[in-house]
Amino acid sequence: xxxxxxxxxxxxxxxxxxxxxxxxxxxxxxxxxxxxxxxxxxxxxxxxxxxxxxxxxxxxxxxxxxxxxxxxxxxxxxxxxxxxxxxxxxxxxxxxxxxxxxxxxxxxxxxxxxxxxxxxxxxxxxxxxxxxxxxxxxxxxxxxxxxxxxxxxxxxxxxxxxxxxxxxxxxxxxxxxxxxxxxxxxxxxxxxxxxxxxxxxxxxxxxxxxxxxxxxxxxxxxxxxxxxxxxxxxxxxxxxxxxxxxxxxxxxxxxxxxxxxxxxxxxxxxxxxxxxxxxxxxxxxxxxxxxxxxxxxxxx
Length: 300
Prior knowledge:
The protein folds into 2 domains: 3-230 and 248-253; 267-299, no CATH class. 70% of the residues lie in helices and 0% in strands. The protein is built from 9 helices and no strands. It starts with a helix and ends in a 19-residue tail after the last helix.
């Protein structure tokens, strides 16, 4: 098999699988429920089609090898970085859907999610960028940092859902778990591939083919999860002593309190109340035999 086929066949297969997943999502009208996932798949398919077109310029004798490589290089890495950012948005979207049954945790988890993202990016930069990194090497290192960050967060999300799925009412057959598990598969493959990428890289290497197979398996998994009916989400039932319940109460307490409105009573109403109490109790504080009904709004 030629080098061009090693390059073109995986991209063509990805485009086919991505279009299938998009059709499955649109068929069940979930593109508005999961807009971040929909945008990721759309961008992924479009970028793969663009890369396939750019990579075919030399084979179609529209550009020489050097110009084709430069065009592909400057198309691939920005697309790779944007794709990593969109993956982070999808992970945040899945997190919001997973904890929607506990609104306090959902509200408090939003800043925690972004803080965890910031910390993972800082640690990835510290591990992947050296003082001598500059120019194009900085671009490559930054894109790989984003990829490692979203891979770590994806694995954390899979572990979180695996542990707390029963408590949150999310079953393993739900689309939330299926989408997150697919990203977990991709994350595992990307982490292994990035470790091998630092030593040796070849388009037709076994590591690249295995990574592509893992990506296709994850996309096919998404298509299956959206194609089959999703079970109804269970109601969250937990004892009052549950730690999750306490965290939810703490999160709601830390949130913005409800607005307060000053309530005033009209003077006539307070006068009527005072006269009624005075007539019932009498001047000495003892009840009287006859009670006169006061005039005003209280009498009606």
